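_Full entry_
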Amino acid sequence: MKFSTRTRYGIRAMIEIARSSPELGILQKDISVNQEISNKYLDHIIHGLKVAGLIGNVRGRKSGYVLTRKAADITVYDIHNAFEPGICVIDCLGSTFKCDREEECEARGFWGRLNKQIRDYFKSITLLDLVENKAVMEDCK
């Protein structure tokens, strides 16, 4: 399972914004340089974060970006949802998918529990945790 580049870059951009001064914010060009994300692609990321209400400008259009609420109140799930409609590990768990085997599928419960664990994990990690490096990587092999 893979998560989109928009989600991954969105998390990186949010970390940069969270680390910036709440009075000045951080300019998009600085996020681009610091995170090695093209400025053009970062436009899409910033737009998604703004539409989701996670970031705003300090003083109008050409000013720095700031968080709209505390980093401790923004979860990885919030950031993910700025770009993707929820988490769905397989199509048959999606609300718009209709499977003829839904009622008798022995594997559906397994996938549903996995999906819930991932969603709960995303909800349990805050932006502040990422900034403070509390979400340390364990051996993932």
Notes: Helices lie at 5-19, 28-35, 39-51, 76-81, 108-124, 127-131. The radius of gyration is 17 Å. The chain has one domain: 5-131. Strands lie at 55-57, 65-67.
